[in-house]
């Protein structure tokens, strides 16, 4: 095998795709040739990648046989259409969408948590990177599960507008400017005003009252934990922040614990940054965590309602840490073992 690899980033002009390209450069991923792929309207536009400036290729007619590894950073419906073409062309595929989360033939991988599922791969494979919400939560959940066991999970996730890509970012910026200038607004991406507001629901709900994104996180966590029966309850609300997701989490453990034990356990994890000072003026927030690679944990405390209950807050950059970096870390495992 060669030491350098041909790589394609599909959705390279989107928020996640741009961050994947940045992470590939920053982490010096062994790229021979980088193909940046997007829709026809972006075709021909150059993108900066080190000393190279590859031009956007049109996804509709892109030849996947040119590459060995493909990152899909596009909506689920686009992944559903084009991922099969990449697999047929013999590519290893890392998909950041929810299109194949429920497909048992895919491998759901969170780097540093369940790398072992990649062992034994002998041919190109579809690998699904978990959503930003699951990616941050599983990094905290995994060490706790290993030591104390976890029997129940509740999480309320406050999503930033970047979870809807550039369109979400632009709408918040546009609405904020308009309202500060006493101008009327017209919601487009979001069902109601998002600037200076909190939306308790985004998207349609199922018969139980849960959205597709919420149910997607339930499935992802159960798959990552390896327990299809693990009780998981997720609420996702939309807040007017540009980047970063904040989760308020309640866990119920199987074994008793001391708060100091949990703090020490989480502090020993390379992917986590744990705040034990309890000082609100220095506590990590979504704004402070933007652009960071680690998941920040704070307010670790005993749940007052459950004897084996643990409450904590998690903050992570949903675009960089939650999606882009996680995907590139998966690719780094593939390079070492399989490509």
The H-level CATH homologous superfamily of the largest domain, spelled out, is Dihydrodipicolinate Reductase, domain 2
Instruction: Assign the CATH topology of the largest domain.
Output: Dihydrodipicolinate Reductase, domain 2
Secondary structure: helix percent = 25-40%
Structural class: alpha/beta
Gyration radius, to the nearest Å? 20 Å
Overall spatial form: globular
CATH architecture call of the largest domain: 2-Layer Sandwich
Q: Give the strand line-up of the largest sheet.
A: 3-2-1-4-5-7-6
What is the topological layout?
Blueprint: E1 5-10, H1 15-26, E2 31-38, E3 57-58, E4 69-72, H2 76-88, E5 92-95, E6 107-108, E7 126-128, H3 132-148, E8 150-159, H4 165-180, H5 212-225, E9 232-238, E10 245-253, H6 259-267, E11 272-274, H7 286-289, E12 295-302, E13 309-316, H8 320-337
Parallel strand pairs: 1-2, 1-4, 2-3, 4-5, 5-7, 6-7, 8-9, 11-12
Antiparallel strand pairs: 8-10, 10-13, 12-13
Helix pairs in contact: 1-8, 3-5, 3-8
Explained architecture:
With 339 residues, the protein is of the alpha/beta class. It folds into 2 domains: 5-130 and 323-337, Rossmann fold (3-Layer(aba) Sandwich); 134-318, Dihydrodipicolinate Reductase, domain 2 (2-Layer Sandwich). It is built from 8 helices and 13 strands. The strands form 2 sheets. Strands 3-2-1-4-5-7-6 form a 7-stranded parallel β-sheet, with helices on both faces. The mean pLDDT is 94.
């Amino acid at each position: 095998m060669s030491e350098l690899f041909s790589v394609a980033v599909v959705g390279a002009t989107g928020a996640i795709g741009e961050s994947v390209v940045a992470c590939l450069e920053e982490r010096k991923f062994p790229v021979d040739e980088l193909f940046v792929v997007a829709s026809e309207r972006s075709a021909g536009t150059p993108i900066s990648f080190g000393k190279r400036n590859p031009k956007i290729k049109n996804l509709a007619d892109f030849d996947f046989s040119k590459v060995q590894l493909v990152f899909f950073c596009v909506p689920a419906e686009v992944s559903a259409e084009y991922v099969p073409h990449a697999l047929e062309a013999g590519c290893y595929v890392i998909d950041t969408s929810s299109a194949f989360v429920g497909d048992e033939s895919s491998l759901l991988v969170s780097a540093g948590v369940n790398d072992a599922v990649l062992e034994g791969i002998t041919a190109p494979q579809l690998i699904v990177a978990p959503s930003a919400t699951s990616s941050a939560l599983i990094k905290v959940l995994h060490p706790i599960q290993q030591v104390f066991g976890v029997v129940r999970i509740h999480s309320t996730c406050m999503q930033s507008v970047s979870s809807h890509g550039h369109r979400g970012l632009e709408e918040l910026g546009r609405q904020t400017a308009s309202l500060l200038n006493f101008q009327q607004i017209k919601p487009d991406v979001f069902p109601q005003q998002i600037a200076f507001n909190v939306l308790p629901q985004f998207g349609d709900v199922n018969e139980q009252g849960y959205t597709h994104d919420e149910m997607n996180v339930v499935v992802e966590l159960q798959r990552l934990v390896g327990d299809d029966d693990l009780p998981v309850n997720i609420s996702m609300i939309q807040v007017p922040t540009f980047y970063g997701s904040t989760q308020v989490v309640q866990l119920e453990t199987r074994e008793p614990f001391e708060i100091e034990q949990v703090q020490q356990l989480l502090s020993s994890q390379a992917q986590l940054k744990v705040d034990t000072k309890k000082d609100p003026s220095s506590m990590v927030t979504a704004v402070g965590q933007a652009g960071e690679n680690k998941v920040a944990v704070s307010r670790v405390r005993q749940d007052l309602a459950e004897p084996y209950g643990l409450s904590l807050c998690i903050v992570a950059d949903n675009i960089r840490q939650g999606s882009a970096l996680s995907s590139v870390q998966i690719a780094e495992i593939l390079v070492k073992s399989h490509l």
